[in-house]
Amino acid sequence: MRFTPLLMLPYKRLFILALAVASIAAVYWYLYRSPSGRRIRAAMQNRDMAACLGVATRRVDATTFALGSGLAGIAGCALTLLGPVEPSLGTYYIVDAFMVVVLGGVGQLPGTILAALSIGGLNTAFEFGSTATLGKVIVFVLVIAFL
Amino acid sequence: MTRKRVLGGLFTAVAGAGILAACGPQSAPAGKDSTGSRSGETIKVGILHSLSGTMAISEKSVRDAELLAIEEINNAGGVIRKKIEPVVEDGASDWPTFAEKAKKLIQSDKVATVFGCWTSASRKAVLPVFESLQGLLWYPVQYEGLEASPYIFYTGAAPNQQIVPAIEYLLKEGRKRMFLQGSDYVFPRTANEIIKAQLNAQGGTLAGEEYTPLGHTEYSTVVAKILAAKPDVVFNTLNGDSNVAFFKQLKDAGNTPDKIQTLSVSVAEEEVRGIGAANMVGHLASWNYFQTTDTPANKKFVAAYKARFGANRVTDDPIEAAYVGVYLWSKAVEKAGSIDVEKVKAAAKGIEFAAPGGTVKINGTNQHISKAVRIGKVRTDGLFDEVWSTGKPVEPDPFLESYGWAASLKKR
Amino acid sequence: MSSNARSLSAPAAPRPGWPAVPTTARLASYGALVLAAVVLFLAAPSTLSEFRLNLLAKFLTFAIVAIGLDLLWGYTGMLSLGHGVFFGLGAYAWAMYLKLEASAGTLPDFMAWSGLKTLPWFWRPFASPIFAGAMVVVLPMVVAALLGYLVCRSRIKDVYFSLITQALALILSILIVGQQPYTGGTNGITNFSTMFGISLKDVRTQWFLYLATAAALAAVYLLCRWLVTSRLGRLLIAVRDDENRVRFCGYNLTAIKVFVFALSAGIAGLAGALFVPQVGIISPALLGIVPSSEMVIWVAVGGRGTLAGAALGALLVNAAKSGLSESFPDTWQFLLGGLFVGAVLLFPAGIAGFVSQGLSRFPGRRLGDGDAKRSGREEVLHPPAGILPSGSLAGTPGTPSTPVEVTAWQQ
Prior knowledge:
Strand content of chain B: 15-25%
Strand order of the largest sheet of chain B: 7-6-8-9-10-14-15
Radius of gyration of chain B: 22 Å
Number of helices of chain B: 14
Strand content of chain C: under 5%
Oligomer: heterotrimer
CATH class of the largest domain in chain B: Alpha Beta
Shape of chain B: globular
Shape of chain C: globular
Number of strands of chain B: 15
Number of strands of chain C: 4
């Protein structure tokens, strides 16, 4: 789909956008509206107290880890539509992902979304203005400065 | 607890074995007896490629080609009546590891020569090792030129055997506005310096120039810049997996080769398989050899390679250059009657070989080889159709001394 | 400070619940150190071939990094996933000097083919070995102090600190790759010929460099050992185990953390400078995410929280890596990976921890070399016992106290 010479939205990317929105909605519902999500938040906010109240914290750990891995899997799946797949794929994305978490704040779903959008947007903006290499560097410096 | 202790013992034993192998004064791992290669029944040669890490996918097939050539030579009676014994080392896509393994091959294994390396960085890392220890390296990949070490033979293309003719071809075809895009490292940057000088001199224009980090996979910005610049052709020096992302995203943006054509210099048959022929059909590449090159030697080579490593494997330019390198070395040794490095170097001057890509000849002064230049178009099966060729071999000129317009580049 | 150190390392420091350290064990620990010194300075140079000695020298530089990293991670609890950066900065500083000397007044080759006409201003002072030598340590320390200050000031800690250092490793490596005219790009800086006018190819030069590396390792070890047994060392461990309490006690947490981070970075820079002339190359690949994480693996395998363990870990892991890849070029990564998994499963406290546990089964022989520092740590842990949760004492060395407490909760 082409809107202007510079704005193009291939169907693959539209699909990924929809997938991201769906994943966020599902995670939001799970964390804030389901009993299992409540246990995760409890274990994160006060582990000992949650354990006292009968939350099996180790089980929660395992569930959360599994869920997080699954989400990463969905992201990886979406990525195959855009780029190459190879064993060391993860290293190219891990830093960006971590920066998003650092900037967004732990346990803050809205913060994470905002951070992801701004880091991605800034990266592209700087890349358009200068080069991809410098773009990444500037974003990193900004993140450190704004922490 | 006992199970744990048994496991612990086992672990310690394995770890100990590894350490002993590393630290022993002269390690002689099983299968590689340390009889002196210079006097024994075999001649040891080193094979130094990345068998792990990001470069492994490219370099493993090059290693296979070298092993194939060694087998063929051994089956034909060996060289100066001795069998060649390959000592394989893993450079692990890590440049200091290349330097370490090169030292090991020359100092500990005392190999007669080494076939190896792919990236310029790995070659630059081992160059001081080969020069200081007087070892010999055969380097099989096209590269940015501006180098002629007395201890390295370059069997890949120098810039004037790949890039310069490709630009001449494009200009002759009337594609004058070029967009240069490449990975951010030495080969694309140097190649583009050369191209810019050539465009300047021969009436082309520059539509844009972009570099992305190695391993970069988000090309929507670059693709948007390309589409906005409307060049006649994109000269692509991206390396490795970035090509997959670039060609996929270029196609997703609605581009087809009849709108904006690309010409790549680091995408051969092996890479096309990774990118997917469907994403690249109709795009161009410049090389000295394609699997489809029509020579008797190539029919034999492709058949032998597929018989040895599997019918689904493809051959390409660096694979051919590596194979040719082993043969050239063996011919030089036969001529010298010795594996002594200085004698082999002296004997190598002017040696000819009917390579799969046509007859090649070692240039005595810069130790590169003369070879024909070809431009191919990707077919639906991922192989190339030759669309243009120089026909006869082009003399190597790593410093572009015979090109007037390159004067500003070469006066360093 | 020195009198403090002496009184603290004195064996007679009374520790509730533990028998006084036997003098024989103390002698044994010194014996191990002397033995290590003899092996390093006498046995290795006289028996190893030129190639193996050069390889060992490379491993020794890694051991130096490991000790510095252990000071930061094992003792202060700040896990840096970007220590390759500091190693690389030191290495680049020294490589710039070596390159300028190798180019002998002309423009270094990579600048020439990248289109530069004159030497950039920031390269000029590196022609002086004194300036370059100072920069080897100063540059990493300044970068670490700056980043450490920004990060610690906003009270970013734990995993966030690790992530930011990891991002630094990525950013600096792509920056260096991108600035090819000034840094040599992916190829890095290579092809050196002389140092102080002496040929690097000479066997005697390599031999001298090996001895210098071994001496540097010994010096760094002694410095860090003195540090961790001093009052400051106690403070570092307190920071690791509960930094809030340290802050409440009125200590300037930022200053402590920035100091350790900068010191650790300076040590890594020194190691980098020793690495360059012996290996002959420095490239951005050496300061990226992967090598930085490898450094953490060395410390984890060797035993975090014990200096000798960290150094040993660096030596063992690299020796195993070299040895396995020489013997099994096609499968060595699986074997090495298996070793790492095995090490983590069997020795959660690292090799040094395993050794000391093994020794502690025999009463009266509680001290191996690694254990000396471990019980030294316990010794330091005890005096501020008032502020430390007792649970942290039961934990494996270096483990932050929380998980231990949680397991205690659950059992």
